[in-house]
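Hey all, sorry for the wall of text incoming. These are the two entities for the joint prediction.
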Amino acid sequence: MTSQKPIYESICLIGLGLIGSSIGLDVHKKNLANHISGYARSEKTRQIAKKIGFVDSVHESAADAARDADLIIICAPVGAMDSIAAEIAPVLKPGATVTDVGSVKQAVIEAIGPHIPQGVNFVPAHPIAGSEKSGPESGFAELFQDRWCILTPVDTATPESIEKLIQFWNALGSSVEVMTAKHHDSVLAITSHLPHLIAYSIVSTASDLEDVTQSEVIKFSAGGFRDFTRIAASDPTMWRDVFLTNKDAVLEMLGRFSEDLSALQRQIRWNDGDALFDLFTRSKETRSNIVEAGQDTDAPDFGRIQIGDKE
Amino acid sequence: MTSQKPIYESICLIGLGLIGSSIGLDVHKKNLANHISGYARSEKTRQIAKKIGFVDSVHESAADAARDADLIIICAPVGAMDSIAAEIAPVLKPGATVTDVGSVKQAVIEAIGPHIPQGVNFVPAHPIAGSEKSGPESGFAELFQDRWCILTPVDTATPESIEKLIQFWNALGSSVEVMTAKHHDSVLAITSHLPHLIAYSIVSTASDLEDVTQSEVIKFSAGGFRDFTRIAASDPTMWRDVFLTNKDAVLEMLGRFSEDLSALQRQIRWNDGDALFDLFTRSKETRSNIVEAGQDTDAPDFGRIQIGDKE
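and here's what came out:
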């Protein structure tokens, strides 16, 4: 990766978990800012961030970290954004841009929007980059490489501030798409929120069986179950907030899914092999499209089997 | 891998797809038999098998391939097993062992069992080794490494024949567990069949939306959806047969899952954040147990992001 001219003079990261640390690492690696300031609520996280060094300065409060920054990225659970925005609002520099990385966007706009002072740009963002890991030690610079980032700018943001944030995410390796917050919340309800909900639900179902032991579920999980457990290991606080703040879209998608599942259930009960075969054949195509679009690896079993790695 | 004394003089593979080819490759690699004969219904598959060379002889009929073999492994969809067993029954050598790799076991016993002649051992087996790939070119010798294989022997099989098949699967890298066919079918209904059904169902839901385009579903699939599509790309014929032949256990697990999903739906509708948080926290533990048991990789994002692999 060649070094390039910094896009922002100074960047502030509020929240130093998986996303915050990954941004910090890649900004350093690619020289996208001259200074990164950071804040995390937990003292332990601040210490780890200092030790790993993905921020240049660590502060005792969000306001201290945000003061003088040109780009403030709030990388905290949606439920914490209202109070963070209230705290940093008084110290925001005119012309600065506030953004976030939250998985829902209408609720983020409701939480942060009212606090943004005149002259400050607010450009909500959502990098679609998944990992089940959380915490400041889980970050890696390549997290956003070949991924998508969605921006849902509010009316008052200047075109220049939006353009610059697009440039920033491009530099982190992501393609950017701009859409309304409402549309974002529908798209993510089906591509991310419903899958997580289902994954949590089946893990719960598997925990409550009388005839099958937990150790059997775990031993034989390679048959498919383990695929669901990866995303069911994601951060509980973050996901609680997602479901509570994107309730309408999630319930809508869940209703549709339940209908489709009932139809499948009926086909099995009535031995409708042809209908099952047709559906399964169509699903294979969706998979091919995802692999072709570069959004998944074609390695068998995700490359879980480390070929040649055994003695 | 050091070479070892062959466990069987000759092995016959009926069906040369992912599982058959993976067995053939590993038997050759580890010298577990002096001869592998093979048969596949499709001429094209037989040609590919010959070219790759994971069998020593390719035959024009299942009976020709099975004649004189000490171990016959039926690696075909469950729906094809009845006719395969009927065809090979007359040529089976006394003392030979017939086994299979089917994902259900009660139905396999009903399909194959009645054809097995006296003096031939029948030991149904199910290697729990998942890949979404199918066909003779998708096999690899490491597929069974560090996985589990379940045996569900019938009463007439000799202890020696069971012991030898356990030794064979151990040599392929798998641990072996022996249980009843009925229990197997319950265990797999939750760990494999229900996850596949749900994955097929959500892919179908995502294909039928008015507000979200297919290209959006694909672009933003890294948020969780793509995890489900991997198993929804599995072989349609095989999975149709699984659902039709393990109907009772699948419908039972599906009923439980639907109840649990409804409970979650209610918690979201009534903003019960504490209940959601508790459930999500418990799910994380199940994930940790699976990783600790060696049934999944701990690499973030399954190592889908090839770190250092980009320019």
